Amino acid sequence: MGNDLFSAEVLNETWEIMCNDMPLALWETFYVTVAATFFAIVIGLPLGVLLVVGEKDGILPIPKPVMGFLNVLINVLRSVPFLILMILVFPLTRLIVGTIVGTTASIVPLVIAAFPFVARLVESSLREVNPNIIEAAQSMGASPLQIIVKVMIPESVPSLISNFTIAVTTVLGYTAMSGIIGGGGLGKIAINYGYYRYKYLVMLVAVVILVLLVQLFQSVGTKLAKATDKRLKSGK
Amino acid sequence: MIEIKNLSKTFSTADGTFQALKNVNISVSDGDIFGIIGMSGAGKSTLVRCINMLERPSEGSVVIDGVDVGTLGRRELRKLRRSVTMIFQGFNLLMQRTCLKNVCFPLELDGVGKKEAKKRALELLELVGLSDKANAYPSRLSGGQQQRVAIARALATNPKVLLCDEATSALDPKTTRSILSLIKDINEKLGITVIIITHQMSVIEEICSRVAILENGEVVEQGEVNQIFSSPKSEAAKHLVFPGEEENVAELQYGKRVLRVVFNDSESTETPLIAKLAAEKGIAANILYASTKSVGGKAFGCMLLSFPDGETAEGAKRYLSSHDGITVEEVVNNGK
């Protein structure tokens, strides 16, 4: 079985599986990726902001123990391998979604894995903002909240978009893994057909589609980042 | 009226404490253009930041119109910063906002309505001569244009005081002059008090009426600009007023007597003194160096004369000092 990768029989069978399962799998992967990244940003963005403004000489210093806790939490979550994290968060997944299997359930571990990463990305984006511009805003009587909302975030939009693109593609990679714990999508197809049933061609096609998805997200992200960057002088 | 009283600022660094400002006393009257000059590291930027409390003084106080700004709460301080605004060496515009939106920014912070803010911003862009750049992003503008936008932005909240932190240091001489004349215009038209921080004597000459010289965190001399130009007392002031090359010239004349003659009004600059010295006293002076510039609308001249011996030098000194508006001083000749 499956010794000839490209025989007519295999091609036919693969085509059939593709037609039946691929549209749903593609949609599931897309939905899980976007939803997980969205929630990761919802949690990670404010956290990243805190990491920058909460520093000792930041614009809104936070007590040192709190900052220390945030940093440790982020580092710990980032160092747990995703495969293990998925299993560790089962109780939380059950609490939030009601079940631990299925496509929607796989969003929970993805968010847990991605938000600390997003927080670090946001932190690095915000650190790129010219501190003199922040000082100028202070000299105009801006409050810390105004500086965050009107200066730091808008000024780093291009960099934030670039970094969120990295986050999306990373999450996309993780979704493939969630096939193991019953999450849907391209990962499930690759594992179920390719790994468990030796249909290597199906696995190969699923991987190629994943690669194309990454390309798509990346090029859209890069274009958006460029379009929003008003520091560039191109296009007079 | 801005009064800086006994102001000191100490920074603690990894290698101990560093005193950036030592017992600074300065008072600036309303409507003045006041210059604070010093070499880099003299504490100028720290001093100007103490005025709007971007930097908290370690000791002493800053009193603006009778209000000790060090005692203000956060909210009151933010309000104060709308009436004491600032422009910077690096312009510090928001790069992701158009010029118009940059000028609107302080109004936005103040909660002014969008329409009203836009109207005011357009007026200000017109005042600084950049109406046509309203929708351009700062990256498309030259340094001088960016500084004009920054000035418009600083004026948006109708300030009483404008602080300029090395505002022209990043600009070429021609652009510097045009920015300075804009600042002077604003000072005259709107009656805004201006405090200028600079390391360039030319900036002080061009628009300041009073000046304080800062050296190692201390004010070593302050007063009317033309007074300091004509008779600088401190070493730092002399160094700033008389450019370094002058001393070098004097050093070449080892063994001779060198006098520095300063002319500080138009009458004395219009008299052919050296010719008269030769004709009336028979003393032939060798001119080593001479310059004339306009300081605060007054002609200001400086000359270095060398004489072969003490007798002629003394004679020249007596003769020249007898004229009004002329200061004569012997240059110490180290002769390396």
TrEMBL record, chain B:
The keyword Transmembrane helix does not apply. One of its GO terms (biological process) is amino acid transport. The keyword RNA-binding does not apply. Pfam families: ABC_tran, NIL. Keywords: Amino-acid transport, ATP-binding, Cell membrane, Membrane, Nucleotide-binding, Translocase, Transport. Residues 2-241 form the ABC transporter domain. GO terms for molecular function: ATP binding; ATP hydrolysis activity. One of its GO terms (cellular component) is plasma membrane. InterPro entries: AAA+_ATPase, ABC_transporter-like_ATP-bd, ABC_transporter-like_CS, ACT-like_dom_sf, MetN_ABC, MetN_ABC_transporter-like, NIL_domain, P-loop_NTPase. SMART domains: AAA, NIL. CDD domains: ABC_MetN_methionine_transporter. It comes from the Bacteria. Belongs to the ABC transporter superfamily. This is ATP-binding cassette domain-containing protein. It comes from Ruminococcus difficilis. The lineage of its organism: Bacteria, Bacillati, Bacillota, Clostridia, Eubacteriales.
